[in-house]
Q: What sequence folds into this?
């Protein structure tokens, strides 16, 4: 049987590892290479790195750091942040990452998804969708760390990205990020109803049971940040990951 | 020296990185002269079947690979699409494969109304015969990372070293003499993949 993928999602900001609450209040977690070594030792299923400063600053991906990460990790790796060309994608794949996460570029230049899926295959392409409610309480796709609305409905947008050639959707919730109050199960359910490609749920996980709920709502895999970097009510930094046994019992 | 064949497709550095971690230097090459000298060959691959075979031919690598595999019989490992290229053909395209292993590559299909998510992506187990040298040090907890939309079906069970269940039982490790193929990515499969690559390097 295929195992459910449980994916720590790590945020890089100015080359430091941070964790946000609602895409703000970034708390320093540590040195990325150090953290990655620990996750590697814990045999995590997959890792997601998102450089949240790369698009906004216009600096683009830090290839040197990505190369260091790829040399330490013997697991599937996904990277997002500041990627805006086929050339960027090719470079990152060559370093040893197998998945490319597009967020801002997908929103402003969606034909990049068509071109990239033709060139590199759709299973390497993940479109990440950050969802936030607008003033009229409607779900909308936001970009640039949740600061700018595209005015697009997330379900229509996910469908469009699937048609353009995305191989996977990483669905995140700005309002739930870092709150540890659970995933947006309603949106996961509605979105997976219209998708044939896998959806990775992100944003809000606070306990193992949340993973299970996301999967039963239709997600193919789950991702989380806080759960894997904090311990206890005071959010002390402690990198952790459930044992294979715990995960197998959870999804049995 | 082990040569990782570069035919313009696939995640070559992660294989090199893992080999380095287990103490083997390797070169990534698309040069006929370098491949000619190889003591072992790794054939990686991500992408589509036809594009891969055409790239191999365009770079004049077909004959040298055939020579290494069939005449010189050096240990050769095909990974993911690289394994599918070892077979006769693929439903993904029109090109012929190397045909070193009597098998074909087939598309995953929905069965009995059950919708099978394709690609088969994630960690899965293998059922294997532990007597093969390739499985030294690996036990039932062994799992590997897969990403593929087509699977390999051997025509003779003697060429199937391991099976994996996804919709059906497909051949996840194939072998004929000096030629091996893994449908999964050992270079992305933590200590399990590391052990398997170690075993391959010891062949």
A:
């Amino acid at each position: 049987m295929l195992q459910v993928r449980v994916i720590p999602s790590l945020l890089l900001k100015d080359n430091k590892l941070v964790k946000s609450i609602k895409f703000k209040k970034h708390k320093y977690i540590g040195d990325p290479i150090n953290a990655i070594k620990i996750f590697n030792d814990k045999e995590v299923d997959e890792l997601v790195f998102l450089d949240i400063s790369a698009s906004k600053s216009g600096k683009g991906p830090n290839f040197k750091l990505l190369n260091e990460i790829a040399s330490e990790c013997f697991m599937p790796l996904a990277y997002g942040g500041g990627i805006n060309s086929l050339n960027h994608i090719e470079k990152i794949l060559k370093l040893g990452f197998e998945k490319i996460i597009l967020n801002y570029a997908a929103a402003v230049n969606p034909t990049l998804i068509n071109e990239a899926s033709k060139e590199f295959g759709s299973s390497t392409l993940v479109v990440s969708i950050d969802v936030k409610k607008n003033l009229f309480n409607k779900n909308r796709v936001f970009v640039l760390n949740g600061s700018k609305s595209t005015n697009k409905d997330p379900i229509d947008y996910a469908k469009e990205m699937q048609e353009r050639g995305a191989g996977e959707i990483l669905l995140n919730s700005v309002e739930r990020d870092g709150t540890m109050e659970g995933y947006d199960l309603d949106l996961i359910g509605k979105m997976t109803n219209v998708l044939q490609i896998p959806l990775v749920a992100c944003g809000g996980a606070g306990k193992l049971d949340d993973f299970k709920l996301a999967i039963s709502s239709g997600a193919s895999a789950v991702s989380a940040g806080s759960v894997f970097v904090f311990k206890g009510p005071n959010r002390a930094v402690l990198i952790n990951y459930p044992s294979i046994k715990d995960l197998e019992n959870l999804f049995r | 020296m082990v040569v990782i064949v570069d035919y313009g497709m696939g995640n070559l550095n992660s294989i090199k990185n893992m080999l380095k971690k287990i103490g083997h230097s390797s070169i990534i090459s698309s040069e006929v002269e370098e491949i000619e000298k190889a003591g072992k060959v790794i054939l990686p691959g991500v992408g589509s079947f036809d594009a891969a075979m055409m790239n191999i031919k365009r770079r004049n690598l077909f004959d040298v690979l055939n020579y290494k595999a069939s005449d010189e019989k050096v240990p050769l490992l095909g990974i993911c699409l690289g394994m599918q290229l070892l077979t006769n053909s693929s439903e993904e395209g029109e090109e012929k494969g190397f045909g070193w292993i009597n098998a074909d590559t087939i598309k995953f299909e929905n069965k009995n109304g059950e919708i099978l998510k394709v690609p088969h992506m994630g960690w899965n187990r293998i059922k294997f015969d532990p007597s093969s040298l390739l499985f030294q040090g690996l036990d039932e907890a062994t799992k590997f990372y897969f990403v593929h939309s087509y699977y390999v079906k051997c025509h003779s069970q003697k060429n199937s070293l391991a099976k994996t269940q996804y919709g059906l039982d497909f051949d996840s490790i194939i072998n004929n003499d000096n030629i091996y193929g893994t449908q999964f990515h050992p270079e992305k499969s933590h200590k399990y993949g590391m052990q398997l690559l170690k075993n391959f390097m010891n062949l």
Remarks:
- The longest strand of chain B covers residues 168-176.
- The interface with chain A takes residues 11-14, 17-18, 21, 46-48, 117, 119-125, 141, 143, 145, 147, 149, 165-166, 185, 187-191, 193-194 of chain B (CB under 8 Å).
